[in-house]
Amino acid sequence: MRVLAAMSGGVDSAVAAARAVDAGHEVVGVHMALSRSRAQHRNGSRGCCSIEDAGDARRAADVLGIPYYVWDLSEEFEETVVADFLSEYEAGRTPNPCVRCNEHIKFSALLDRGLALGFDAVVTGHYAQIVEVPDGAGGTRRELHRAADPAKDQSYVLAVMGAHRLARSMFPLGAAPSKEAVRAEAATRGLSVSAKPDSYDICFVADGDTQGFLRDRLGARPGEVVDADGRVLGQHDGAYSYTVGQRKGLGLTRPAADGRPRYVLEVRPQTNQVVVGPSELLTVDELHADQTVWLADDVPAGEWVDAEVQVRAHGEPVAASVRRARSGRTDGTDGGAEGALEARLSVPLRGIAPGQSLVVYAGTRVLGQSTIVSARRGAALRAV
């Protein structure tokens, strides 16, 4: 097959491209330039897709003996991932930009452009597994599963890709036993990135100051900090700087009457208010979500099914009963986007914010993904 290898400049994508070459595919390496500033430099393990990363990707491609190109996707990245990040915080939600980057850039702009150029698939260095199983009709279907190494599993941020794009994706590192094993393989292959530190945090906020980034882009918007009964407790410079579950940085000068710490319970963009209260009000056991992308067409809609849900990239999955709406398209032309999804948790969770990604699992298999709209305390919790 002719495959397009997404090469970030890191060790994972370099080894993934190398394994695709070993498998006999015709591989072309592509580095995605996502920053509008061509002078942007990497700051240690913060940030990615910098000028240094492009150079590292080129050197890896040279070692592998494959063609290499840089594609400027900075406009698409700014107009989708960064714009979504800002609008979500502005609307009082807490987004996951890695999910949106996979949706709009790596498995939309990159894959769709590659298919248009005659490539058969895209290979990336993500840690997840694609498993082919009989579909009951004489054929097979592709399932997305967790990686063999739980510590590196990235299926949570890949669930949004949809069945159509899953069919054209390859994840050669899914069965890798550990990141250390991948680094050792890179060193054996003579790849200079074998000891390069992993990138983390938000790539376009390279200094790690998310609140500073939001202030620079959205400006000061003073408003009130109130309790659950609407009493004014203090002031803030922008409700977008707060997220559900936050304890520090509330700027309150008066302690609660009972002396206990306060947490952000809700962000209300309509009134520019931040609602704070005691920690027990953060505990929820019912989640409502929308913009569902469903990967498992063999799991029926409209019925409650037993599953597990995960609400953070490195969070622990919890058992739940899940029901998704019957409406929506599943042919993959729109990524499999559907409608509402409900989850009743067997174990309550704390600090769940609108905008977070909710991923549904059956064991290691990813069933689908949805975006949380609201989190509630069900009857059992309200009675406590």
Automatic annotation (TrEMBL):
Keywords: ATP-binding, Cytoplasm, Disulfide bond, Methyltransferase, Nucleotide-binding, RNA-binding, Transferase, tRNA processing, tRNA-binding. InterPro entries: MnmA-like (IPR004506), MnmA-like_C (IPR046885), MnmA-like_central (IPR046884), MnmA-like_central_sf (IPR023382), Rossmann-like_a/b/a_fold (IPR014729). Its main location: cytoplasm. The keyword Nucleotide-binding applies. Residues 285-372 form the tRNA-specific 2-thiouridylase MnmA-like C-terminal domain. GO terms for biological process: methylation; tRNA wobble position uridine thiolation. Its EC number is 2.8.1.13. It catalyses: S-sulfanyl-L-cysteinyl-[protein] + uridine(34) in tRNA + AH2 + ATP = 2-thiouridine(34) in tRNA + L-cysteinyl-[protein] + A + AMP + diphosphate + H(+). The keyword Cytoplasm applies. It comes from the Bacteria. Belongs to the MnmA/TRMU family. This is tRNA-specific 2-thiouridylase MnmA. It comes from Georgenia soli.
